[in-house]
Amino acid sequence: MSTMTRQVVYVVPDVTEPSGGVHAIYRHAELAERTGVDAKVWHLAEGFRCWWFSSSAKVISGETLELGPDDVLVVPEVLVLDGFDPAPGVRKVIYNQNHYYTYDNFTGADYPAWKPAPQVWAGSVMTTNVLKALLPKLKVHLVPNVIDTELYRFAEERKRKIVLLPRKRPREAAVLSAIFKNDKRFAGVEVVALDDVTEQQIADELADASIFIALHRDEGFGLPVAQALAAGCVVIGYPAGGGAEQFEAPGTHAVEDADVLSIVEKAAAVLANEPDLAERRSYREWVEQRYSEDAMVEKLQVAIEAATKIRAKGGTATHPLTQVVTPEVPPVSEQLEHSLAFAQEQKEARERAESVATGLEDALGKALAELEESRRREYVVAQELHDLKNEYTELTKAAERLTALDEATTLLAEYARDNDRLSRRLDEEIRQHLHWRTTLQDKIDDLERSTSWRVTAPLRKATGVIKGGRNG
Fold first, then answer.
1. Which of 44, 140, 164, 428 could be joined to 321 by an S-S link, Cβ 3.0–4.6 Å?
2. What is the mean pLDDT of the segment spanning 175-204?
3. What was the pLDDT predicted at 453?
4. Residue-level pLDDT at 307
């Protein structure tokens, strides 16, 4: 690229605990080199370097630094100090990774009251939009974060494992860990809480995990969410402001702030029906498309070129940490007294916390037992309902059979009645026939007895025929 900028110097606080913001600054410096500038990070303490990640960025140290008219000094939002211009006459940029921290160390008017006025680089879409409304007089550029997809790799074999970072919400992390331990649905599930570990250790744990719990608070971007997605983890938790853009990704489940039970239920649902590898790869692809090195370099180049248009003459830059007031050291005896008092307070606070935790654990155990009993009763009722449905089906069939039997009985009754009528009629016909034969025989007998032979001879002859051919 064609530029007059000789140096882009990033001011970095000398923090000794893992910080995603510090790592992001180092990544900026690494990638700024690809735009053709001499980029470096600036610590106050001689020889200071962050231990929890590796970086190829150049590192300098010291209280002051001479910068020319073409150089740019980049200051993080947390080191914008009230009443202090870190480099009068020098081109300056405020790198704001979290809009919630904008006024952490500034209380005056006309933020930030620097000469010349700086431009602002923002690390997320939400931070960009907030800062444009908050600082209408300053030029704000979106310079997105970059996710190292080589470090945050994707493992084919996944474990039934849940990873969480408790640093910003240690109480909620403790409660969640206890619930996962007591809930039978998470039997055999590994729960890993990562604190004060290297970035490599975080990447190793995320690589084959199933779920990442995002316990964020007041986020400008929420870097661990994107890192977990790159590793193929399902993400459940709090967008917490600037993290909202990442919860548009597949595989993310946002819950209301501090709603730990919703986190538990969603985690149980995911473990009961885990996404396949193709779906998990889609999480990683989403991150690669939005937070690649090329995308950041392109935005960073535009931002640096805009910063070079600030009119400046150069001058001496003073590391903002030099303005942090170190309190006067009290006598050793007073320090010891304060230390003992503080230790006692900590002990009492710890005992109270343990007591509360025990009470919470007991209450949680009872609640889980009641939930288990409720589920058991629900199962019994469901089984009874199933049995009732089967009985209803059988009764319906039996009723159908009874209806058919009633119809057959009616037909049989009608047949019996018709048969009785026929039988009575036949009996009557037989009786009349027998009566006729008896009457006829009586008449023949009378005739045979009452007439002379000669007169009745023809009749006897006929009678003989009737009786079987007998002659008179």
1. 44
2. 94
3. 47
4. 95
Residues 6+ apart with CB under 8 A from 134: 99, 102
Token pair for residue 365? 């155990």
SS (H, E, C) the chain: CCCCCCEEEEECCCCCCCCHHHHHHHHHHHHHHHHCCEEEEEECCCCCCCCCCCCCCEEEECCEEEECCCCEEEEEHHHCCCCCCCCCCCEEEEEECCHHHCCCCCCCCCCCCCCCCCEEEECCHHHHHHHHHHCCCCCEEECCCCCCCCCCCCCCCCCCEEEECCCCCHHHHHHHHHHHHHCHHHCCCEEEECCCCCHHHHHHHHHCCCEEEECCCCECCCHHHHHHHHCCCEEEECCCEHHHHHHHCCCEEECCCCCHHHHHHHHHHHHHCCCCHHHHHHHHHHHHHHCCHHHHHHHHHHHHHHHCCCCCCCEEEECHHHHCCCCCCCCHHHHHHHHHHHHHHHHHHHHHHHHHHHHHHHHHHHHHHHHHHHHHHHHHHHHHHHHHHHHHHHHHHHHHHHHHHHHHHHHHHHHHHHHHHHHHHHHHHHHHHHHHHHHHHHHHHHHHHHCCHHHHHHHHHHHHHHCCCCCC
Average pLDDT over residues 270-286: 97
The token pair that represents 229 in the structure block: 């997605």
Cis peptide preceding 331, ω within 30 of 0: no
pTM exceeds cut of 0.85: no
Residue labelled with tokens 């009457």 = 439
**Start-to-end Cα distance in the chain:** 159
Q: Is 83 left (phi over 0), alpha (psi -120 to 50) or beta?
A: left
Q: What does the pLDDT read at residue 306?
A: 95
Residues whose CB is less than 8 angstroms from the CB of residue 376 and which lie 6 or more positions away in sequence, other chains included: none
What separation in angstroms does the CA of 329 have from each of 14, 181, 259, 326, 456? 21, 46, 44, 9, 173
